[in-house]
Amino acid sequence: MRTTSADRDSADHEPADHEPADRELVIHKPATREPATREPATHEPAAREPATREPAIHEPAAHEPAAHEPAAHEPAAHEPAAHEPAAHEPAAHEPAAHEPAAHAPAIHKPLIHDLGTLAHRLHHPPGTPCACPPPQLLADRPDGTVVRSGPVVAKAHAADSDREALAARLALASAPELTGILLPPLSTPDTPGTAGTALRPVTFWPYGVPVDPRDPDAAPWAAAAVLLARLHRTAPPPPLPPMRGPVKAARAVARMIAALPGDGAVLPVQAAWRALPAWARGEAAPPAARSGFLCHGDLHLGQLVRHPAPDGPWLLIDVDDAGRGDPAWDLARPAAWYAAGVLAPQDWLLFLDAYRSAGGPAVPAEGDPWPQLDVAARALTVQTAAVALAKCAAEGRVPDEMEQLMIDSCARIATFPPELAAGSAS
Amino acid sequence: MMQCPKCHAQMQTYNRNGVQIEQCSGCRGIFLDYGELESLTRLESQWSQQAPPPPPAPQAYPAAAPPAHAPAWGAPQYGQQHGGHYGHHRQKGFGRMLFSS
Lengths: 426, 101
Hints:
Pfam family, one (chain B): Zn_ribbon_TFIIB
Order of helices and strands of chain A: HEHEEEHEEHHHEEEEHHHH
Strand order of the largest sheet of chain B: 1-2-3
Oligomer: heterodimer
Shape of chain B: extended
Number of domains of chain B: 1
Region (Disordered) (chain B): 45-101
Protein name (chain B): Zf-TFIIB domain-containing protein
Organism (chain B): Streptomyces microflavus
Order of helices and strands of chain B: EEEH
InterPro entries (chain B): TF_Znf
């Protein structure tokens, strides 16, 4: 347990009336289309609002596994890792949020508060009594801090985000041709961004209901696959940067090595990594024939929400890694789980068949898909194992059973040279 | 460590998709725990209802269901001669890893 709820409350109330945008946030406006789904309240965001109580942040109980939380009580996640609330299963590059309070970065507290305040202002009319539920922390990582207030979700992106690339990705999520595939951002009233150090760009999104981690039978494998197929079949708009999948895999490996200097546990993961072609390690452009597709870049079950909540269609969220690339990358995480024995074959086949039926271009319509999937699935296996080992080091524990399966998979990968599909290796 | 009742080589324990199996390192035979065969039979009948025509029922031990396509580096049950025993402990493998980057 990080703090008592009394601690949290007082800490969160304390800075209640500072102006959030002045410190470490810069508001990022979506470039194009107005989302059909929600009009944000149009009040002056910079004005102080004495009549309106800014609700305190409700952080998910960090010690509590997601599986113990009833859905209605903790609807939670909008972002990767958010269902096991930020806390339980932090994603790559983030500090282990369920460490004791001493490790919780105090610097994040004001940021979280600010995000809650900003999100709240987008839906709560000024000067009216506030009975809104307190803002809820959905994820807290250096590359993505996400807070929900009612129907609005505010996300602070990485401080070192490439602003042009982020703008292009937001425009992508707003583009009419991606309607029904990507969740579009909310448009925001004008709010001046401010200069300063450690600015993190902020975007606003409608809340959507995430995949329920306690109900495997309800996991939307087929819907995810159809969304990916439609995404991959959409021509990427010209200014879109490359998909960031390989770069993230490289970061995961670097993080693992930094966390376990000289430790033999990293050797099979490193060996599998070194055998990958340069493009899959983020060190070269992917083969031209497969590099021009519109890709999500970081697909997992935390990247799907139903919108409008609670019964709307599934949509993909989080465009931070989206871009041009090899569409096999978006299938490669489920493929890697399947190959390791983590994902049941029937789930994998459901996903793969739905992708093929929807005309997805990453794999041939029939026959063995592995020549196309092999390199990316190896890379995602390495990334997953590397993140697992880094987490284990940070948390002073041994890998759990599923993590061990991914590490074992790396050991096998290192002993089999990549299947070379035409154009999929460099 | 168990010894294979057939060839007496060491048996290796695998836990795949939540199913605990022992495989002989010599003859590659599979040892099933109590109730496991019934689970497999049930799964197989569900499977064959969905996917006609069913392959001829395997007579020999170990069982031989046609595996789905899998990479050469896949976990032992794929690509070997015994597909089919997965899924009934799926809950165990769900969550956590499947929801994070």
